[in-house]
Amino acid sequence: MAARKKSEKNPKRYFTIEEANKALPLVRAIVSDIVAKYAAVSERKSRLDQIRESRSTHGRGRSDLYGEELAQVEEELDREIAQLQEYIDELETIGVELKDISRGLVDFLGKIDGRDVYLCWLLGEEEVSHWHELEAGFAGRQSLLANSPAGSGSEHPDAGDTAESGED
């Protein structure tokens, strides 16, 4: 399961490092919920696969033994997936992009030296302390300490803006 693309309801939001770190307590709570819920969904999907396999292995006559459990697990899975999507939607509303659902990796859109970059945070880290180019991904993460002027948030040209100017 991956996060949906930004919709028109949630235009791009640029974060300074300071703003990203200020949002981190809420983001951390949501991401923790996402990672836990994703693990539960994965486990439930595995259980569902086992039940389906048992039904097909034991033939038609015994499939009724698994029918009720199958329906229950499918129902629980649907609820878990809906809850997971609500958590992801919460992140999108804040302006944070979920990049890796199993590890809890998120990006905050920001600017360094006048160019768009991602301020990168991984569940378990104390603060937003890394960044990467838009196309670089996790492997391209660099320490914000190497860019201390941008790290302070003072270089951010749109510090007060929460949405793009509308120019494309």
Keywords:
elongated; five-stranded antiparallel β-sheet; alpha+beta; 5 strands; disordered C terminus; 168 residues
Question: Could you characterize what this model shows?
Answer:
With 168 residues, the protein is an alpha+beta fold. The chain has one domain (17-151). 48% of the residues lie in helices and 16% in strands. It contains three helices and five strands; from the N terminus they run ααβββββα. The chain has helices at 17-57, 59-94, 148-151, and strands at residues 96-100, 105-112, 115-122, 130-133, 142-143. Strands 1-2-3-4-5 form a five-stranded antiparallel sheet. It is elongated. The protein starts with 16 loop residues before the first helix and ends in a 17-residue tail after the last helix.
Q: Structural class of the secondary elements?
A: alpha+beta
First-to-last CA distance: 29 Å
Q: Cα-atom Rg, whole angstroms?
A: 21 Å
User: How many discrete structural domains?
Assistant: 1
Q: Count the helices. How many?
A: 3
Low-confidence stretches: 2-7, 149-168
How is the biggest beta sheet arranged? Answer: 5 strands, antiparallel
Percent helix:
40-55%
Shape: elongated
Quickly describe the structure.
This protein is α+β, with helices and mostly antiparallel strands. Helices cover 48% and strands 16% of the residues.
Fold blueprint:
Elements: H1 17-57, H2 59-94, E1 96-100, E2 105-112, E3 115-122, E4 130-133, E5 142-143, H3 148-151
Antiparallel strand pairs: 1-2, 2-3, 3-4, 4-5
Helix pairs in contact: 1-2
